[in-house]
Amino acid sequence: MGKRFILGLLTVSLGACATTTTSQTSPQAGSPLMAQGLSAEEKQARQLVQIQSTGNEIVRLYRMEQYGEDPGYSPAARRARQAALRLDFDHCTKDYTTVALEGDSLGGPGPGLIAVYLIPEPENADLVPIGGFYRVLVDSESGDVTHFRELGNGCRTLSLNPTHQDGASVSSLLVNHNFTPYPLENHVFASMTYEVDLVVMTNGVTWKVDNGRIWALD
User: Fold this and answer.
1) Is the pTM of this model over 0.70?
2) Is 191:198 a contact under the CB 8 Å cutoff?
3) DSSP per-residue letters across 45-109
4) Domain segments of the chain: what residues?
5) Who's near 157: CB < 8 A, 6+ residues apart?
6) How far does the chain reach from its first CA to its final CA, in angstroms?
7) Judging by DSSP bridges, how do beta strands 145-150 and 197-201 pair with one another?
8) What is the pLDDT of residues 159-209, one digit of tens each?
9) Stretch 45-63: mean pLDDT, rounded?
10) H/E element holding 185?
């Protein structure tokens, strides 16, 4: 299908300041959580983006991937994708696509593991899937699933045309999220795929997700 999107693996501890950069430069205190998004050139190059932080803050890794099969995937990654698709999970749409991140790559889950994302294929151009995303960790040697997690509650969608008017569009969408105290990969995916800002409300903090950038509004 050819669309491209951002996915990320993350380790998180809450804090106030961090910045996105493709270098190893640490951010200055008081900077927004993510200070810079991805350019079109970076997207085309599938460039990895690391969100640096200082102190007790957020560290996140994102990389570009494609829908569907990628001939560059290793046999272990292909096996991991099949193992993830065989799981008994609640389908929010008829078709699902997968993306695999291998453990030895930047953004991967760690040595010996492959992360597979199960992503619902949209069935309505005006509805943005927010629910129905899953993160699966698979042992790269045995092919066994070691971890399975849903990235939100149920089969939630957000409307890009809430007024049902021809040609109508929205610039931002509001979503409540109580799974974690911070946005997850599905929020970044939705924002970048549908080119819309997300305002994500967690327990006590409101976040903005915009073109690969995330920062706290509160």
Assistant:
1) no
2) yes
3) TT--EEEEE-SS-EEEEEEEEESS--TTS-HHHHHHHHHHHTS----SSS-EEEEEEETTSTTS-
4) 4-65+74-216
5) 124, 127, 128, 129, 130, 131
6) 38
7) unpaired
8) 887 665 555 556 788 888 888 888 888 888 788 778 888 999 988 888 888
9) 36
10) helix 185-194
